[in-house]
TrEMBL record:
It comes from Micrococcus cohnii. It is found in: Membrane. This is Putative Tic20 family protein. The chain crosses the membrane at residues 59-78, 92-112, 118-136. Residues 1-29 have a biased composition (Low complexity).
Amino acid sequence: MSQTPRRATPKRAASAAPAQPVAAAPDAPGSTGTASWSAPEHGPGAPLTAKQDRERATLAHFGVALGFAAPLAVWLLYRDRGPFTAQEAKEALNFAVPPTLLMVLFFFLSLLPVMGPVFAVLAALTWIAMAVYGLMGGSQVNRGRPYRYPFNLRILR
């Protein structure tokens, strides 16, 4: 068995990317010191107009049908930008937290083999009540009138 010598294959030249300039630190020798290394500062947004304030408050109440996530988001985003939105989003959030937790409990109890269907119906009825009261609240707030839920735990004051 004779071995044939292998031919050397030519190596391809790697295409080198053009070198990018390296930025110097602001306090480095030869630096102009104009580069900014800090993140931009963010403060609260501009205050809401009366119409925007009413619209955001309406969204908080309509969002009750989705649980407490929507009123919480509206409250966190707009509490410092509009007094009506802050008040109504807090009201909607206070209303939405207990029934949402109750629905989660009913959901897990609905997995039980014997009483499961009863808890599934209770979860559905809880959601329907939340949606109806949220729509009622949203329609009142959209007219510019504050809405108070008939039963509400004051978690946030």
